[in-house]
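Quarterly update, task 2.4: cobalamin-bound model.
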Amino acid sequence: MWRYFIYRMGVIALLEAEKMVDETLLEEFEQALLSLDRLAVKNLLTKFSSSESPIELIEKLVVPALNHIGFEWEAGRVALSQVYMSGRLCEEFVKTILPHADFKRKDQPNMAIAVLEDYHLLGKRVVYSVLRASGFELLDYGRVTVDEVVSRVKADQIDILLISVLMLPSALRIKDLKAKLNQQGIAVKLIVGGAPFRFDANLWKEVGADAMGKNASEAINIITHFMESQT
Ligand code: B12
């Protein structure tokens, strides 16, 4: 119960903090998503992209709009089908604006990214693309169970594992993952991210992660920090 309370307070605080763009634009974008107006979604993204980079566009417009839609769904004001279609529309356009890989960097740890027992894939896609565009090479495990990820991390000799989850039960599964990695003596740094960690600032420590990133840019900083501390 207390966990849910912290979570709810976190959602409200996050929605306040995320009002970073012109509220009218954000509302227009949200309405376009909810009414499945593909053309309006495209036009608004195009308008915003003339002044912002693709990543800023995602962080300042797409993420807050989807967060708010999730909140509205929870409050019973929008239907799950609208949440679903909003997610699909954003996925469709985000795919076209994400930057391409840039392979300048060579010396780096073995890295992989996975979505743990969760069906929310858009955040992982964004983090993966931003890391590759910043010169990091990493494996994409897609959606995996705890046992699958443990055996893949072992086989690929992964040094840094990034985990994306959007639901609280999936976040709590990271505890099992950590325990199984420890049992097998696999030393891998765990970086976690996604809605539950943004809503509850201490959750990443409770599940045994080594770090938490609120967005893709923070993932870059954390990895760079790990690399520097190893040299
Ligand atoms: C779109 C959406 C869906 C879509 C997903 C489509 C898809 N292919 O991804 C659909 C409709 C399928 C869906 C289904 C469900 N959903 Co949903 N969904 C959302 C919503 C509205 C937006 C998620 C999203 O795509 N955001 C945009 C991306 C870009 O942002 P992001 O994922 O947060 O990622 C950013 C950061 O978090 C971070 N990040 C993410 N991962 C990582 C990893 C690392 C390592 C780092 C550093 C950073 C990082 O960087 C990203 C870029 O900034 C959220 C609301 C929310 N507040 O998040 C609810 C939400 C996640 N859903 C929720 C729920 C409950 C469900 C369902 C259970 C509903 C149901 N009753 O069926 C199902 C579950 C499906 C399943 N079996 O897993 C809840 C979870 C609540 C909880 N306590 O666990 C939320 C929070 C809504 C709410 N407010 O209640 N959902």
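Highlight for this quarter: The chain has two domains: 2-97, 111-230.
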